Amino acid sequence: MNWKIAFMVGVLTNMAISQGVVINELMYGPSGGEPEWVELYNNGPDSVNIRDWTICNKTGVRYFLRLSDLYIRSHSYLVITNSNTFADIHPEAVGRYIIVSWSQYFLVNSGDTVALHDERGTLVDSVYYSPSWGGTGGKSLERKSASDSSRSKQNWGTSIDPGGSTPGIVNSLTPKEYDLKLSAFSAVYMPGESKSVFDFWVKNVGTKTVPLFSVNVIIDYDSDSLAGAGELVATDSGRGLNGGDSIRFLIEKISANPGRYNVIARADCPFDQDTTNNWMIARLRFSYSSGSIVVNEIMYAPVSPRPEGSGALLPSIRRREGTKA
Ligand SMILES: [Ca+2]
Ligand SMILES: [Ca+2]
Question: What are the sequence ranges of the domains in the chain?
């Protein structure tokens, strides 16, 4: 079965420990024939065997998750539901869920308890939710931080995922660890100097420092919205961008083809967890005030206070010595 492949590869040498598994997301009020489900997340460093673990609601009736070995790998998810119709609605979660034969209405919509016990009957995690926490309107109730308390209302909320829930994947309310974002972009062509100037900001909206990333400027000469041969006109890179910080790139390109084209600026980091916000499009504008406009300096302006010139954040931006009158 698919889930065995997904959860057992390479983890058989680990001891079963209960630390780290949390109740991470609840679909207690589904719509459109979707079954109720509970998402578990292993927040610990080791794989966890959930053999003989149980789940219960406020009735206290415990349902076994699994009577044989089943490992949840570190930083992985497992969804528990009671019907395979779950896979019809969430095909993306196939291989990340198991069936537990709880009653049709396991999670009461007006509020309930969900508790997880290990094979010795020790409580692993529990949640006492109510609709005031979120999770109504056919959307799931998501935990924001696996490390913060499962019993704090502030740590939960309604999923903001476009699909209304995130079974088997990171929660939409959980701050991403690695997420670069293009936050502003303009492109100007100056015929008098036969050059284009691309001016854009990259912001780290994740929580962790991005050690290295690249930026690319693409002029879409043939208007197919793709980076074709010869359309990548400039590249650069940045280092050590802390969470919450921004950095400005000011790149000049001599002899870029004049014309009215769309220009794409893009930031690339191999472990970016949301690449939908990594690029922006600008229209290449013309400026005829040659000689009066000067690109003079790079501005590096982190949002959070830090000493300038600390060395962690100096990208190789092309700079031009200005001749401002
Ligand atoms: Ca999720
Ligand atoms: Ca991103």
Answer: 2-158, 180-286
Ion ligand 1 nearby residues (CB, 5 A): 25, 39, 166, 171
In angstroms, how far is the first alpha carbon of the chain from the final one? 73
What does the CA dihedral 218, 220, 222, 223 come to, rounded to 10 degrees? 150
Give me the mean pLDDT over the 234-240 stretch: 95
180-286: which CATH topology? Immunoglobulin-like (2.60.40)
The model's pTM is 0.61
Residue 172 CA to ligand 1 center (angstroms) comes to: 7
Predicted local confidence at residue 86, as pLDDT: 96
Domain 2-158 falls in which CATH fold?
Answer: Immunoglobulin-like (2.60.40)
At 302, the pLDDT band (50, 70, 90 cuts) reads low
